[in-house]
Design goal:
By secondary structure, the chain is an alpha+beta fold. It contains 5 helices and 18 strands. The protein folds into 2 domains: about 130 residues, Jelly Rolls, CATH 2.60.120; about 80 residues, Phage tail protein beta-alpha-beta fold (3-Layer(bab) Sandwich), CATH 3.55.50. The strands form 3 sheets. Strands 1, 2, 3, 4, 5, 6, 7, 8, 9, 10, 11, 12 and 13 form a 13-stranded mixed sheet that branches. A 3-stranded mixed sheet has the order 15-18-17. Strands 14-16 form a two-stranded antiparallel sheet. The chain is globular and about 60 Å long.
Length: about 260
């Protein structure tokens, strides 16, 4: 009888541990994606979904996964506060009222144009698709960013300008795709983690040597992870629960001395 009870107790402990992990992962996910500023925003999109809205002036704004904005229009300007996440903006022309996107780090000013803005913890990424905007950080001069250009903006100012394929960026937004060109796997997993509930856990140091060039679906991150496994046999992906996924590369780990 004692022999039968021991395995049963072990199974119960395993189930309890798995349940605790699931609760922890779910709680962490809610803490990140459903902060008060997000919940109180005028417009928002849940994790893994995209939402397009037509604003009062006729402008169109698409919110990426887990994004939120506040909208303030008056007689003098059209103001959009990017609370979190990323947006694609198609600005209606209005010479009397500039359209301003405030990311907290920078103010991006336009009259009529199309661009994307992403707010990270320490930077704003601006990608120009049509026309041009003025980007300014407090205490720094404004910089003009033209169509086909991208810049990373921090509290230190507008960073170097790099060239982008505007048509490819627009298509990636339309198809909900992540287009990767020789980027570290950890950066790719960072982006996939933004588009799925729960936690995607990985050791950046262990997978540091793996670089990726691919087009992955952001609206089906399970499929994206499967595509990574198919192309990188050294990867191991374990879905402990829907809300906790572990990624590692055991074959890449250094061998231990015996």
């Amino acid at each position: 009888a004692l022999a039968a009870i021991a395995p049963r107790r072990q199974r119960l402990r395993q189930l309890a541990a798995a349940s605790a992990v699931a609760v922890l992962a779910l709680t962490s996910a809610l803490a990140v994606s459903e902060r008060p500023a997000y919940l109180l925003a005028d417009l928002r999109s849940p994790t893994g979904q995209w939402r397009t809205h037509t604003l009062a002036d006729g402008s169109h704004i698409t919110l990426g996964s887990g994004s939120a904005v506040n909208v303030h229009f008056n007689a003098g300007e059209r103001h959009v506060e990017l609370v979190q996440g990323d947006i694609l903006v198609d600005v209606a022309k209005d010479a009397q009222r500039p359209f301003i996107v405030d990311s907290g780090q920078a103010a991006i000013r336009a009259l009529g144009t199309r661009f994307t803005v992403r707010r990270d913890d320490d930077a704003t990424i601006l990608s120009m698709l049509e026309s041009k905007v003025s980007a300014q950080v407090p205490q720094h001069p404004a910089s003009i960013v033209q169509a086909g250009q991208r810049t990373r903006i921090t509290e230190d100012g507008v960073g170097p300008i790099t060239a982008i394929d505007a048509a490819s960026v627009q298509e990636a937004w339309r198809a909900h795709q992540l287009v990767i060109d020789d980027q570290p796997l950890a950066d790719v997993l960072d982006e996939l983690a933004r588009h799925r509930p729960g936690q995607l856990h990985y050791d950046r140091a262990q997978i540091a040597g793996i670089r990726v060039a691919a087009v992955l679906p952001l609206d089906d991150t399970d499929k994206a992870l499967q595509l990574l496994i198919d192309n990188f046999p050294q990867l191991r992906i374990r879905m402990l629960t829907r809300y906790l996924v572990m990624v590692d590369a055991p074959a890449s780990a250094p061998a231990k001395n015996k």
